[in-house]
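Quick one: structure for this chain?
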Amino acid sequence: MQSDIDIIITFIVNQMDGEPVPPHNSATLARLAKAVEAFQKASDRDLQLLALRIVGVVIDRVCSNIAAEQILCDFIQPGDRHA
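Got it. Here's what it folds into:
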């Protein structure tokens, strides 16, 4: 089940990065479909693990974006703005 989680998480991360959905007959899309199918029969524990990983991805991405915005603001407006 861990590999199915990794496949789904990788797909979500790729989509967040703006990558296109894999082509219809691709091996990547076949693996994703198989992973999703496995979760349709998954235990509550496996679903919780998937949910936690997805939430972790979202938190990491938001934190990265906030940090990048702060760096950009510091670059655009250098100096001590707190004085």
